[in-house]
Specification:
Elements lengths: L1 E5 L3 E5 L7 E3 L2 H11 L10 E2 L1 H11 L4 H4 L6
Parallel strand pairs: 1-4
Antiparallel strand pairs: 1-2, 2-3
């Protein structure tokens, strides 16, 4: 499934076989909703993140934001 990110809606996953995008505030939420839509024997879900989704995922999971790496330490 292809995934993008919209700050107003969250993550949106789309696939040709789905009528409407799957929306969720987290990638885990997207995965759970997609799994609920699939048949039990077809639970192999691969999320392909576009640039916006990858940037948001990195922003949420990066322990040290890139903007702080350039700042001088305050003593």
């Amino acid at each position: 499934m292809s995934v993008t990110f919209d700050p107003a809606k969250g993550y949106a996953a789309t696939a040709p076989e789905q009528r409407e995008p799957v929306l969720a505030l987290s990638l885990g939420g997207v995965r759970r909703r997609v799994e609920a839509l699939l048949l039990p024997d077809d639970l192999h879900v691969v999320l392909q993140l576009d640039v916006r989704a990858r940037q948001e995922w990195t922003r949420r999971t990066d322990p040290v934001p890139a903007t702080n790496l350039r700042e001088e330490p305050h003593l």
